[in-house]
Design goal:
With about 190 residues, this protein is an alpha/beta fold. Helices cover about 45% and strands about 15% of the residues.
Length: about 190
């Protein structure tokens, strides 16, 4: 196995309080080598960055101005993002405005272990918990327990990661999805 520089990573747009909270909690655990980035787009409003209802209300009462350049954070280039995933043993996928995100698939394709909240959308041939990915509670209260376990159990983590990658290639590539589409249509009609 290649020597990985970090145990756990996350990169994403600030589009929910859950993302802000998760990155803050991960950064606060010095026993886990975490590297994570949150960023805002120039079109994002200050209320997205606000922590707590009162701060959201204050931003809204001020007309909910756009996030300043200093508040935008670090947005990785695609190359930096994929390098980060390649250096990670585990990577987190979190919902933002909704669950459907490319990150969910990019993590598995880049071969760190996918740790995600349980999807609340239908995903044909989705990953199975403990076999091809690991799912946390929606409030992420068990996230650190899951991370610590899989950081310490290399063989188990690597097996789930390898199974996830094989499952991705078997069911989730563009070609495989296109091949299964007629069957899905027939069953639905």
């Amino acid at each position: 196995m290649k020597d990985l520089a970090i145990s756990y990573s996350y990169d994403g747009r600030i589009s929910s309080q859950k993302r802000i909270q998760a990155v803050g909690l991960l950064r606060a655990n010095p026993d886990i080598r975490f590297e994570g980035y949150l960023y805002a787009e120039p079109t994002d409003r200050k209320s997205k960055l606000a922590r707590g209802l009162l701060s959201v209300l204050v931003a809204k009462l001020q007309g909910d101005p756009y996030v300043s350049e200093l508040e935008r954070g670090t947005k990785l280039s695609p190359e930096q993002y994929y390098t980060l995933l390649g250096r990670s043993k585990i990577a987190l996928s979190l919902r933002g405005g909704g669950f459907d995100t490319l990150r969910y698939w990019e993590i598995v394709a880049s071969k760190p272990l996918l740790v995600s909240e349980w999807p609340d959308i239908a995903i044909p041939h989705n990953f199975e918990h403990g076999k091809q990915a690991v799912f946390c509670r929606p409030d992420l209260s068990d996230r650190m327990e899951v991370v610590r376990y899989y950081v310490q159990h290399d063989e188990e983590r690597e097996a789930v990661t390898a199974n996830g990658y094989a499952h991705l290639l078997k069911y989730q590539t563009c070609e495989r999805r296109a091949e299964s589409f007629p069957d899905i249509c027939r069953r639905s009609l």
